[in-house]
Design a protein that fits this description.
Strand order of the largest sheet of chain A: 14-13-10-11-12-18-22-20
Shape of chain B: elongated
Low-confidence stretches of chain B: 16-23
Structural class of chain A: alpha+beta
Distance between the termini of chain B: 70 Å
Largest sheet of chain A: 8 strands, antiparallel
Distance between the termini of chain A: 66 Å
Largest sheet of chain B: 8 strands, mixed
Number of helices of chain A: 31
Strand content of chain B: 15-25%
Radius of gyration of chain B: 30 Å
Structural class of chain B: alpha/beta
Largest interface: A-B, 64 and 56 residues
Helix content of chain A: 25-40%
Strand content of chain A: 15-25%
Mean pLDDT of chain B: 91
Shape of chain A: globular
Number of strands of chain A: 33
Mean pLDDT of chain A: 90
Oligomer: heterodimer
Radius of gyration of chain A: 31 Å
């Protein structure tokens, strides 16, 4: 919504200023062709701007699954503006073309002037955009020429290089380079073409290497070998040497152009390995026979990297950067937490960390950010960017490299909106201006008024913005389909929740509408955003949103507690910590390490143990009166290793000392109080009683907190260590007053309130034993993990403990998750196993598609298939459903109840201080 | 205080905790009036104290709320309670009864207080419970039961059993007068299980048990080792149909109860809550057209299973429906929903499960639902797509004839507005039983995809008898004429297939039923919401909600 100079919103048409009212949106009618949170967001923005809009509705959002109606439909103003398509995009080229025709026909037939594609696949597909443009409809987003020029990765890199931007060193046309070694100019190329009777025409508008590439393509078509493997090997050696000279000790990545999914790729560490690596990737890609296209990419391998991106916006003439976003925290190609990165923020944080080593780090980051922003603006201007785009970089230490430009609005655009707004000023009158807060609004404005819009200035809003993505994933961040949301608490103050409308109630009855996360799309459910006055304040507010969110349902798994744990961990280690894109792997391993202990902790056992240790009746009584006060939050904390990870990450070193002999640094009731709050079990009005501290526990907690507060006031100390020391004396310190009796009473109360402290100390002990507490951040703000969290094999084992396989009797193989069943990897391939087949442990048995991810299910043990219960590909199966009856080679040794109990005894007692 | 004692209070707190801070000045000298006030205060506080903090802690340590806390989930308003000093201990006798204001509706509620004598029924509190139940009936307000009772209080002897009888009787007499929702919490055995099952709907959460007896009795009587969950947990009762809805926890149960309540009328003389809808009733439902096209034009054609809830979500207001007994017998779907704001009970064949054939479980599930809608003036829509009752030894031996008859009778007895929409298959006895005009339907509609016939494809044997005989004769002649067995069989099979196609073309369609007036009209896909809404609105305008007045039939 446009804002006037007092930040009041109004429509352009209604503005007092003639200049501003000239930006009216008049008869714009916009068709939204994407789904996800951005669809609802765009619908709301369009409505506020007075723009009529329509939407596509896929069968997967209406008729394929029960309880899966697009929530946007509930409050829709124009139901005739819903247009049905089988799917938002086609699978495969043919379907895609059909869909493009269908969409342009819908737009044309229904009088749409504009089309918005959000961040869907179509949004940066030049072919699609061109079709829209050709149909006379205005595409709200970068035009096809921008998508074309910036979208193709190698083209974009070439351009970036020519602009002097920092690009990952390497070559992407090694075959052409080899060819040009032998045939050095136009004449030589033409001679060569003639020799092999290739109809080659030298094109003067292209560079010499591009002409060489063109000739090579003709050669591939005719199966004529113009460059040999030996020549490629030699050239790879030379190119590598150049890179190693500048970046000694780093590794170099070779990737065949047809490679993917780990095939046709090698990472090389030393010159001696180059030749064999070249041979390996060519062999894997099956291009050794003469005349095959053997071109491969050769580039510096970025080992430890951070993912930064610059939001840019332009109208074709000007291009402005709206600062950066740090998206380093990601896993399985899914971003998790996105943080704003602006010069204003870094300057403030530099000031705040004056005198610390971190200040120097942040200063260098500021230089990098300035360079990336300048390069982004330069690049945007060079491609005549006429809407919004993202300039993506990877950052390694103080080096940054351009990766690609995404010519569309991105999921995380809201982060930038929180930190900058755009101010457009009348070129003829400096006092006549208006503000735009939302990028989608700016996109519409640009698509309607483009070149008339003067270059805006960016105006700082909040210093920090952040977003978390709520996904339907399990504890190890694997997609989990089929959950039904039955309740989602309303957003708290300051929370921006882009949830596709899922949280919107039934307009007739006000009831929450059940929503099935069926798994037809990627796992994203919603985006949660908020801002802050510093990065820390921002993360604290994100943490508060996560803490207070109640999201309940049936068979529902989300990454909310992963986020909450992670953000809490970050807050405990300094908000400006710089995790890399590889952070989540070892972090999950660390959480897995916690779980390997937690699964053997028996709280009832600890309680019995502690009770048994008390000889005094009054001690037993005091302990009993704290039973639920202590066991309830511990049970909740130990029930979810991600919660425990966050609690440890946030409080270790503040509430207790780290290490093998932990001690509390605050009184145990403060520790408990923090725990209740952390778990969102604190008392607050409006909560169901089962979601807050029990009333009798609150009484004890308050009594204890007041006791220690009064006591420390009297003792004149804030230090818990000192308080404990004083309390160990038989007589009161001087000036305490009240006489010996009061001192004795205080000591009795202290004994009472600390009688169960040993249970709480299990938290630091688990932290130490699991080594989770040893994850640390150095003064350069970088994270370091214990070795076993970074070792691939050990880390995988630890992470697996987060999602134990479903119970199965040893004569059957069951589905580890719900989804679509496939007996083979691809339609043209044979089934993976059939009746009578023997299989080895670890062999793939079948495939489950969950939210577009094809997961191979591996045999947990070796055996023989005796019966196949599930055959038809594509059918929906439930978690735990039996797929095969099998005869195992060896009967799986199931731990007996006794053995389990024995182990639990050992682990649990080991975690208690004294036995 | 010994040198090693442990306490949990703050000795540093000022001891003079404000007393008598109530505004009115205390009399200089206490008189008998003050004694009376003190007694009053004691009695009032006693009722709310339950079994005291220690018992409360025990209740909480099992992850359960107290009855007071459960009530707080149901409503923010203060409950209006009765007989809070019932019983010889003047403590309310381990049961709380009263009236709640739930979103403007008066709802009777009872809840066992497990912190007092394990919520048991003793010599007198059965009468207290009965009074509340009678009151609900008298005023015509729905009842919610928060059950958490160990059963009869053994020290009370026969008195406890009498208490149960009294409550049983009151609740049975309430049945059919006002609807009731029973939430099962904790661990309930014996009468604690029977009593709530007399109610209309039962909701059970995980980690609870109810049953005839607990596992200990099973062990001593039969020597069987079984856990409480495997004996009477929600997994068991959800499958048998003893409970209607299963939830993960107490909070889930209480919220589900409120959601269910939003579809229920107050009593048997009023209609279920109407909710003006913003979802237009005259819209063409394009999704419905696409759904049927995709299903019936798929490779398996007219034999493709259809998950009927995919259709339900197209025709209900804003796509919302509320399924009952969703964990079992899903070959029939029983659900509440709203069309044009009116609450409707849907009885829908679901061909996605066991081809939608009606077996004993499905018949039982359907019968209960139809009878409920009948008693409480809820109009019904029957969505028909079934090839009939499930045949076979297992079903016959278990008595499908009785179960099927019950479903049929419940439909015949239905007096509320009742509409049938035939989606596809309507064969034989199932067609006849399933709210046809001749069982008393107000309106029978059909989609053009309907296949209404006496029999499915096997019917050709009867309809084309002479053609069948001719095929047999030709086959025999071919063999005698020297044709190989294979050739003869091939030409016979081809002839049979042709006959099947002819049967499908001639008889498996709605034409005959329309001609006979067995079906009123064809409704085109995409228009069913409009047509159903229009007719429902018409029928409801003419319908007067009132208690059932018909004679009792011999069978239920």
């Amino acid at each position: 919504m446009m804002l006037d100079s007092n930040f009041r919103s109004q429509r352009y048409e209604d503005a007092d200023s003639e200049w501003v009212s000239g930006f009216g949106l008049g008869r714009v009618k916009c068709l939204i062709v994407c789904r996800g949170p951005v669809r609802k967001e765009a619908m709301e923005i369009f409505e506020r701007m007075g723009v009529e809009c329509g939407m596509l509705l896929s069968e997967k959002d209406s008729i394929v699954y029960p309880r899966c109606l697009a929530p946007e439909l509930r409050g829709l103003e124009y139901s005739e503006n819903v247009h049905r398509v089988p799917d938002y995009m086609g699978s495969g080229q043919e379907e895609k073309l059909a869909r493009i025709l269908q969409i342009t026909a819908i737009a044309h037939d229904n009088g749409y002037t504009h089309l918005f594609a959000g961040y869907g696949f179509m949004a940066e597909d030049a072919e699609f955009i061109r079709a829209v443009e050709d149909a006379g409809i205005i595409f709200v987003g970068p035009s096809s020429s921008v998508a074309q020029r910036a979208g193709a990765k190698d083209e974009a890199k070439k351009l970036a290089r020519s602009l002097g931007n920092s690009v990952i060193p390497g070559v992407d046309n090694i075959s052409a380079i080899c060819l040009l070694h032998k045939s050095k100019d136009r004449g030589a190329l033409e001679v060569l073409a003639k020799k092999h009777s290739l109809s080659f025409q030298y094109d003067d508008s292209l560079s010499l290497p591009d002409n060489a590439d063109a000739l090579l393509l003709l050669g591939y078509a005719a199966q004529v070998e113009l460059v040999t493997i030996e020549e490629l090997q030699a050239e790879a050696g030379g190119q590598s040497a150049t890179i190693w000279k500048k970046y000694p000790g780093k590794r170099i990545r070779f990737k065949h152009i047809g490679g993917g999914g780990g095939k046709g790729q090698r990472v090389v560490a030393q010159p001696g390995d180059v030749s064999s690596a070249v041979m390996d990737i060519l062999a894997e890609s099956k291009v050794v026979q003469p005349g095959s296209n053997r071109n491969f990419l050769l580039e510096l391998n970025i080992e430890i990297s951070r993912h930064n991106e610059i939001q840019i916006i332009g109208n074709g003439d000007w291009c402005v950067s709206l600062g950066g976003r740090d998206c380093s925290l990601q896993m399985h190609e899914q971003k998790l937490l996105e943080l704003s990165l602006t010069q204003e923020l870094l300057e403030a944080e530099i000031e705040a960390s004056a005198g610390l080593a971190a200040a120097a780090v942040l200063k260098r980051d500021l230089v990098t950010l300035q360079a990336m922003e300048a390069e982004g603006e330069r690049f945007g201007a060079a491609v005549n960017l006429d809407s919004v785009s993202t300039f993506e970089c990877i950052v390694d230490g103080n080096d940054h490299f351009f990766m690609e430009m995404n010519t569309r609005i991105q999921v995380e655009h809201g982060v930038s909106e929180l930190v900058y707004r755009l101010c457009f000023t009348n070129p003829d009158d400096a006092t006549d201006c208006f503000y735009v807060d939302q990028l989608i609004e700016a996109m519409v404005l640009l698509s309607v008024h483009g070149s008339r819009l003067p270059k805006p200035t960016r105006v700082s809003r909040s210093l920090s913005g952040a977003e978390v993505r709520v996904n339907a994933t399990n504890a190890s961040l694997q997609p989990h389909a089929g959950g039904v949301i039955r309740y989602w608490s309303p957003p708290i103050e300051g929370e921006i929740r882009d949830d596709q409308g899922i949280g919107g109630r039934n307009p007739d009855t006000g009831a929450f509408v059940y929503y099935n996360l069926a798994g037809a799309y990627d796992s994203n459910i919603a985006l949660l955003l908020t801002d802050g006055t510093t990065r820390e304040d921002n993360l604290e507010r994100i943490s508060e949103i996560l803490r207070s969110t109640e999201l309940r349902g049936r068979d529902l798994e989300t990454n909310l507690s992963v986020h909450y744990g992670l953000v809490s961990w970050i807050l405990g280690h300094g908000a400006m910590v710089k995790p890399t894109t590889r952070f989540m792997g070892p972090y999950l391993a660390g959480v897995g390490a916690l779980q390997t202990i937690l699964r053997d902790v028996d709280l009832d056992l600890t309680w019995a143990d502690l009770l048994g240790r008390q000889s005094e009746d009054s001690a037993k009584l005091a302990l009993r009166r704290q039973q639920t006060l202590i066991l309830r939050p511990l049970g909740a904390l130990f029930g979810d290793p991600h919660l425990l990870a966050g609690y440890i990450g946030c409080h270790e070193g503040t509430l207790w000392s780290a290490g093998g002999k932990p001690k509390f640094l605050a009184n145990p009731l403060e520790v408990l109080n923090a725990l209740y709050r952390y778990l969102n079990l604190d008392a607050s009005p409006g909560k169901p009683p089962s979601a807050e501290i029990w009333s009798h526990d609150l009484d004890v907690l308050r009594e204890g907190l007041s006791f220690y507060s009064d006591l420390q006031k009297r003792l004149g100390t804030d230090s818990w260590t000192e308080t404990e020391a004083l309390l160990s004396a038989d007589s009161a310190p001087k000036n305490f007053g009240g006489g010996a009796e009061l001192w004795a009473a205080c000591r009795s109360a202290h004994r009472g309130f600390t009688v169960a402290v040993d249970l709480l100390l299990m938290v630091p002990r688990i932290s130490h034993r699991s080594e989770f507490g040893q994850i640390r951040v150095d003064d350069q703000l970088e994270c370091h993990f214990p070795d076993r969290f970074t070792d691939a094999e050990q880390a995988a084992t630890l992470a697996r403990s987060l999602v134990p396989p479903p119970a199965a009797s040893s004569d059957e193989i069951v589905a580890p998750t719900g989804g679509h069943f496939y007996s083979r990897e691809a339609p043209h391939l044979p089934v993976l196993v059939q009746e009578g087949d023997r299989f080895e442990a670890g062999q793939p048995l079948f495939v489950i598609e969950v939210m577009k991810m094809f997961n191979k299910v591996l045999a947990p043990f070796a055996g023989t298939v005796t019966r196949v219960l599930q055959e038809s590909d594509g059918t929906i199966i439930a978690k735990g459903q039996t797929i095969f009856k099998v005869t195992p080679d060896e009967v799986v040794q199931v731990e007996s109840l006794e053995q389990i109990q024995k182990r639990r005894h050992r682990v649990t007692h080991g975690l208690l201080g004294q036995v | 205080m010994t040198a090693t004692s442990f306490t949990l209070n703050n000795p540093l707190q000022e001891t003079s905790r404000a007393s008598g801070a109530g505004g009115t000045a205390t009399a200089a000298k206490p008189g008998p009036y003050d004694d009376a006030l003190a007694l009053g205060t004691e009695l009032v506080s006693k009722a709310r104290a339950g079994g005291g903090t220690d018992r409360m802690r025990v209740q909480h340590s099992k992850g359960r709320m107290t009855v007071w806390e459960r009530i707080r989930v149901l409503t923010d308003e203060e409950p209006n309670l009765y007989f809070e000093n019932w019983g010889k201990h003047l403590d309310g006798a381990s049961i709380v009864t009263g009236i709640l204001n739930v979103k403007g509706r008066d709802v009777a509620v009872y809840g066992h207080d497990f912190t007092l004598r394990a919520g048991s029924i003793d010599a007198t509190n059965g009468a207290k419970l009965a009074r509340l139940i009678q009151m609900a009936g008298q005023h015509g307000i729905p009842l919610i039961g928060l059950n958490d009772s160990a059963g009869a209080f053994v020290p009370a002897g026969v008195g406890g059993l009498d208490g149960y009888s009294e409550a049983f009787t009151a609740l049975r007499k309430l049945s059919g007068v006002v609807p009731s929702i029973m939430c099962m919490f904790g661990y309930n055995a014996g009468g604690g299980a029977y009593l709530p099952r007399q109610g209309s709907f039962m909701i059970q959460s995980e980690n609870t048990f109810f049953g005839l007896t607990g596992p200990a009795v099973v062990k001593s009587a039969l020597g069987e080792d079984i856990t409480a969950d495997a004996l009477g947990g929600p997994g068991v009762h959800g499958q048998s149909g003893v409970v209607d809805l299963v939830t993960p926890d107490e909070l889930g149960s209480l919220r589900t109860a409120l959601r269910l309540l939003s579809y229920l009328p107050d009593n048997n003389r009023s209609s279920a809550p109407f909710a003006e809808t913003s979802d237009p009733v005259d819209r063409v439902v394009h999704e419905e057209r696409i759904l049927f096209r995709n299903i019936f034009n798929s490779p398996a054609g007219m034999n493709t299973p259809l998950d009927i809830t995919l259709y339900l979500q197209q025709i209900c207001d804003h796509g919302e429906y509320f399924e009952l007994q969703p964990e079992r017998a899903r070959n029939i779907v029983t659900a509440f929903g709203r069309i044009g704001g009116h609450v409707v009970g849907f009885l829908a064949n679901n061909s996605a499960v066991s081809s939608g054939q009606i077996d004993i479980d499905a018949a039982q599930k359907g019968t209960r639902f139809v009878r409920f809608c009948n008693l409480y003036n809820i109009p019904m829509i029957f969505l028909e797509d079934t090839t009939g009752f499930l045949p076979g030894k297992e079903q016959e031996h278990r008595g499908i004839v009785s179960a099927g008859r019950r479903l049929l009778d419940s439909i015949i007895d239905l007096r509320t507005p009742r509409i049938t929409l035939i989606i596809r298959n309507a064969f034989g006895g199932a067609y006849a039983a399933y709210n046809s005009y001749f069982t008393g339907a107000d309106l029978v509609l059909t989609l053009p995809t309907a296949r209404i016939a006496v029999m499915g494809p096997a019917g050709k044997d009867y309809v084309y008898k002479s053609e069948m005989q001719q095929i047999a004769r030709t086959f025999k002649a071919d063999i005698e004429g020297g044709a190989s067995d294979a050739d003869a069989a091939a030409s016979r099979d081809a002839a049979l297939a042709k006959l099947s196609l002819r049967y499908e073309a001639e008889l498996m369609n709605p034409k005959e039923a329309l001609a006979l007036g067995s079906v009123s009209s064809v409704v085109m896909p995409g228009e069913t919401r409009q047509v159903l809404a229009k007719n429902l609105s018409f029928l409801m305008r003419k319908y007067r909600p009132e208690p059932m007045g018909a004679p009792q039939r011999e069978f239920e």
